[in-house]
Amino acid sequence: MTTTLPRPVRTAPSQPRHRSRLLTAGAALLLFVALVLPREIGQLGPAAFLRLPVEGLVAALLVLVLPPRAGRRAATAGGVLLAGLTVLRAIDMGFLAALGRPFDPIADWAQVGSGVSFVEDSAGSVAAVAAVVVACLLAVALAVLMALSARRLARVVRPHRLTGLRTVAVLAACWVTLAALGAQLVAPVPLASRSVASLITQKAQQIPQSIADQRAFAARFATDPYRGVPGKDLLGGLRGKDVLVTFVESYGRSAVEDPAIAPSVTPTLDDGTRRLAASGFSARSAWLTSPIAGGGSWMAHATFQSGLRVSNQKQFEQFAGSDRVTLSGAFKEAGWETAAVMPGTSGPWPEGRVYDFDRVHPYESLGYRGTAFGGFHTPDQYTLAAYERLEHGRPGRGPLMTEIPLLSSHWPFGPIPQPVDWSGIGDGSVFDAQSHAPDPGPVGYDDPLKMKAEYGRSIAYSLDTLVSYLQLHGDDDTVLVFLGDHQPTPAVTGSGASKDVPVTIVARDPTVLDRISGWGWQPGLKPGPDAPVWRMEDVRDRFLSAFAR
């Protein structure tokens, strides 16, 4: 009898070990980066990721001590949570870089609609919808990827429970030591990382504070001491005057006091003070604390006009839907013609109605046919020339109150237009000759010194242009109020800068400045370090009180 040996059973080839190890390493790297991600864009760099995250140690401990099924569920939930916190951290980074503050989960969701509207205006509705869809898909993909990564790591470490517990204990001791020593490779990023825990704590504290701020806004919003005041009791001290309010984009305290910026701005202010004095004008200056920094100019405009601190989009929308008395509305009630020259606004401007402007001149109506300068086409000199043509120089008009934002100092601060002869401005094509000059191009975050220099030059241009206009067209009935809307981006000011902006009142009639002698504002166009500091929302009431009768 012949014995037949059984054939060896062939099993399906298993996944190559190197591929499995690469997947595990990739999963670990993804979760590690999410755990140690720094708070600010400026802190990003290889050394900033050489950290020991305490949250990773806690997660590993949970997976090792929980029953297998519970451990897998905890890993899945932890991965999804970490993905959400990573998205929130990225949003925070953007807000800190652009606005100098973290994202507010209560009030800032209204900004999403503004962002979508901006994309729609810039690139069309299809691009706006596509951007929303892509953002949602990326968020979902990140959540799935992190959940799968966390489950994979849990499955890998679970069979080595004892070794894992010993490793966690050693690393925990290292973390405590590093935390006690305050060890850092890149300041202010500690080696003993608790980024995720800090983010959760910060948001947990921010939410009730945001709710309290909103309630305080609502309480102040509900009362308005100037509602119902008749026109005859308003602004009698300025009867017959033409009042021009100009916001100089990003004109912040740093422009006057930062040693890397002030050399461009201070001589312009000092020279402007001398030139205006030679033309018979006097000036008083101080500081205002803006509700914002880096961007959101419309909130500063609303704060200055309304007497309310408007610091987020939700508050702005509440203000824009109200009948709050604004400065321009008070002027209109008192008999002034009111206008707004808006070089940065395209098409209809629905919010203009809350300011009670008789006429609004958006970019399209200014007639500019010259070369574009940066993100906003119209040089400040042309904007002021258009104001002179459309409003101030218009025959047969009455006393005029006008608001104008000057935008040549808007980021990215370049290219900066050069002054031309006022008589030859025409439709702005005179600026075309400047398009052949060397263009420094947009100023990026990668060159802080260049950004400071170009920012200073842009502010100096705007201020010099304003002084030049006043010398040419100002008279005994001219009152100019000019101020910054907010400090520039933190990439210019550095982190922790104040929100103060300069404010100046200029007039030739001495009785105008006599009215504000009790304010303690300093002579000249440049406020000194010890000049008074007011909240921007206090201006409306103080101004209306000083010039009431």
Fold topology:
Blueprint: H1 17-36, E1 52-53, H2 54-65, H3 68-99, H4 110-123, H5 125-157, H6 161-181, E2 184-186, E3 189-190, E4 192-193, H7 195-222, E5 242-248, H8 253-257, H9 262-278, E6 282-289, H10 297-306, H11 313-320, H12 327-333, E7 337-342, E8 359-362, H13 380-392, E9 400-406, H14 448-473, E10 478-484, H15 490-493, E11 500-507, H16 510-514, E12 522-523, E13 533-535, H17 539-546
Parallel strand pairs: 1-4, 5-9, 5-10, 6-13, 7-8, 7-9
Antiparallel strand pairs: 2-3, 6-11, 6-12, 10-11
Helix pairs in contact: 1-5, 2-3, 2-6, 3-5, 4-5, 9-14, 13-14
Commentary on this structure:
There is one protein chain. The protein is α/β, with parallel strands linked by helices. The protein has 2 domains: 17-210, no CATH class; 232-546, Alkaline Phosphatase, subunit A (3-Layer(aba) Sandwich). The chain has 17 helices and 13 strands. Strands 5, 6, 7, 8, 9, 10, 11, 12 and 13 form a 9-stranded mixed β-sheet that branches. Strands 1-4 form a two-stranded parallel ribbon. A hairpin with a 2-residue loop joins strand 2 and strand 3.
Rg over CA atoms: 30 Å
Measured as a percent range, the helix fraction is 40-55%
The N- and C-terminal alpha carbons lie at a distance of: 128 Å
For this structure, what is the CATH homologous superfamily of the largest domain?
Alkaline Phosphatase, subunit A
Shape: elongated
- The count of strands amounts to 13
Q: Describe the largest sheet.
A: 9 strands, mixed
CATH T-level fold name of the largest domain: Alkaline Phosphatase, subunit A
Named CATH architecture of the largest domain: 3-Layer(aba) Sandwich
Low-confidence stretches: none
For this structure, what is the CATH class of the largest domain?
Answer: Alpha Beta
> Structural class, from secondary structure content?
alpha/beta
Tally of discrete structural domains: 2
Helical segment count:
17
Order of helices and strands: HEHHHHHEEEHEHHEHHHEEHEHEHEHEEH
